[in-house]
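Section 3.1: Structural characterization of target chains.
Under the original work plan, the team committed to producing a structural model for every single-chain target entering the pipeline before any wet-lab resources were allocated. The record below documents one such target. The sequence was received from the expression subgroup and is listed exactly as submitted; it comprises 412 residues.
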Amino acid sequence: MKFTTFKFGDELQEGLDMMGFEEATPIQEQAIPIIQNGKDLIACAQTGTGKTAAFVLPILDKLTNSNSNKVNTIIIAPTRELAKQIDMQIEGFSYFTNSSSYPIYGGGTGVEFDNQKQALKKGSDIIICTPGRLLAHLDFDYFDTSGVEHFILDEADRMLDMGFYDDIMKIAKSLPEKMQTLLFSATMPPKIRTLATKLLDNPASISLAISKPADGLTQNAYMVHDKQKIRLVREILKAKGKDLSHVLIFASSIKSVKEIKQTLNKAGMRASEMHSGLDQDQREETIRDFKSKKIRILVATDILSRGIDIKGIELVINYEVPHDAEDYVHRIGRTARADRTGEAITFINPRQVRNFLDIEKLIEKEVPKVDLPNGFEKAPEYKIQAKNQNKKKWNNKKKFKKPENKNTSNQK
């Protein structure tokens, strides 16, 4: 379907033409007419499907006929990185319109907080915010929410995973009863359905199957004990040499991220880290350095698995198997983008075999298990452990008893 089918105003269409937007993606083709008709919407679509444009474009088109001096649209995103990225996309789409947008997130200075305050008071058309920072502003009386006509939750499943349910409900209660609410989520677990029933009014529903990994992506996995992982990362990167300009390593904890980074740096491989423990300036500097190839290796938690578009990543390493199969697709989707090639390598310990089998079922493909390099301890088998394996059998153990104080003088 051509974008001209949606009959956007001349100003918005001119911006789309300049950006080379011609064919709508499936989520855009289905969502835009629903939003244009003013219905609430719950949509299941993963990152990279064009969902930002799906909800931004029809709203920008409506704003061309609006003269309000109040905030019209609130977009909630789980992280400041995603909020900034959405704001940048809006700036591009609205180049030939008079619409304004402003990102609102934590971690900045008092000056930045004041700038956010002014954007809310003066009525920036669209604000893109993280839940906690918006609540901080709502605690004061300067934000008039009476003009809000659109309330959008992006990456809703990720926000619930991060514990933002109560924050979202508090924000919703401060907004007008009559408004259009749109919920976008990469996955659709029961908790998202529950949230939707509380926030949305007779919504339309869209569900797009999760995309399979790109054709240009090579996937491999190693069966490996946890104690071998650090060394294995080093050996893999050493074997691939300096040909790689962008390597992304996902780890499940900040502790693991720091350990991997320090190990690689000691081995002469310049690496940096990305996680929620960094302040905003540190995150922005890290992303800039990675994009500009000032650093080749970035070790990150799942903060980078969704919503961040860094072109040219050639290798993704999963230091652990993601708990959710969909997260695996999001992680490895950072590479082999835009018809490029790439590689994804996953480390599997014996306890994670079941999770990886779920991943293989989702992607409908068996991922090759590669032999460990020479000099490594024998790899564990790729099989599901028995449920009671490695568990202490307390019921079969006798309680500890203090030794009796016997007189040993008559013993031989």
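Residues 80-93 form the longest helix (14 residues).
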